[in-house]
Amino acid sequence: MPRNPLVLTAVLLLIVGALFLFVHKKSVVSTPEAQPQVTISTVRYGEYIARITAYGRVGAPAGAVAKPAFALPGILAGVDVRVGEQVAQGQPLAHLDTSGLAISAEQARADAAAAAAGYSGGAVPQAQLQGAFAKVEAARTRLQALQGGGGSAQSDLTSAQSVLRQTQIKVQLDEQTLQRQRTLFAAGVAARKDVDAAQAQLNADLADVRANAAKISATSNGVGGALTQARADYQQALTDLQNARAQQGVLSGQAASARARAAGAQRDLNNGTLLAPHSGVVTAIYRHAGESVDSTTPVVALGPASQNVVTLEVAAGDARKIHPGAFVKLRLSNGNASAAGHVAGVGAAVDPTTQRATVVVNGVPPGAIPGDSVEATIFMGRDRGVIIPQSAVVQDPQSGETVVFVQQKTKETTTFVQRSVRIGKSDGTLALILFGLRPGEKIATQGAFQLLAPSGA
Fold this sequence. Notes:
This protein is of the alpha+beta class. The protein has helices spanning 3-33, 99-119, 123-147, 153-186, 192-219, 223-270, 316-319; strands at residues 40-42, 44-58, 74-79, 86-87, 92-96, 273-275, 280-285, 292-293, 300-303, 309-315, 327-332, 338-346, 356-362, 373-389, 394-395, 402-409, 414-420, 422-426, 430-435, 442-444. Strand 18 and strand 19 form a beta hairpin. Helix 2 packs antiparallel against helix 6 (223-270).
């Protein structure tokens, strides 16, 4: 039995060796299991559809609602529309109490008619001007005759006396006219310029009286006096001609001013009715009959005629990539209703506070009402290239590089190697890779961030 201990020893050594190999192998196999649990995806080459997810509401953009107000202050007599009513451009929305405006407009029209009659389209001042020309010509002829030795002092005296009586009568009439114009001006009917015109006419005729009186005095001295008077008559005729020309401008200005006042009064009367600036839907009524209003007081709110639009808010960078006509999928946030639409317009400005821009889309999900929250997917275009899940992309906090973890397998182990990549486009779900990966490679997706080397390792 001496060999039995040796055999027993050999058996024990074999058992110990087997146990050692078993434990060592188990330790090696369990190493990969210590790595983080990740999801594996395959890099593929295919079509990338660029898209942007945005959120908004049913309805037109803010600022699309008009809030018209009256151009002049007054008392609101009534509102001619109701909330929800469709109105056309130019349709009356509300009206003021215009009784006072109507009286003012009628008075202004009467004043304009009176001024036009006094001017007669230029006929009255033109007749006065022609008379002044004739008077100048007659005075020139008489002066030339006297200078040539003709004429009679007695005839001159008789003529001067007759003319003096006529001018004195004119002065009396002028005084009556001036008094009447002053009375009308004090009553607020006539304008100040009418009083000034009557005063000017009286002054001119008084000058004629003085001239004629001087003529009588001069003619009594014989032919020499007659010649002196003829010169005075000629000068007076020239003065009358200047006055006639001035009167023509005065009457023309009075007529034009009266027409302008009449037009202004009629405009105020018309502004007593508030008209719709454009077609649309009445969304609110702010004032009611009996209330005071002015140009700063909106009376109604007028929204767009169609609410079949969705207003979205997108980041400024994304807004620059969106073009009118782009296809959009819409879905109500509080339900399953969905619809297709197209971009109608992109806001030209960016909100400086939120750094977001407005995008308007034609079309709304069925059953949607203004104000409903909407989720939208805007399709930007198509590309072909290397595509991976967005979740596979990791930003290395130490180097700042964009990396992906590529799976490498051996017979015994599975590891992940960090590799830098460049992203062309991404939409939060998929990323289009410009370089760094090849189709068919396996990469870590969910849990890829856990594969980063610890800081300081």
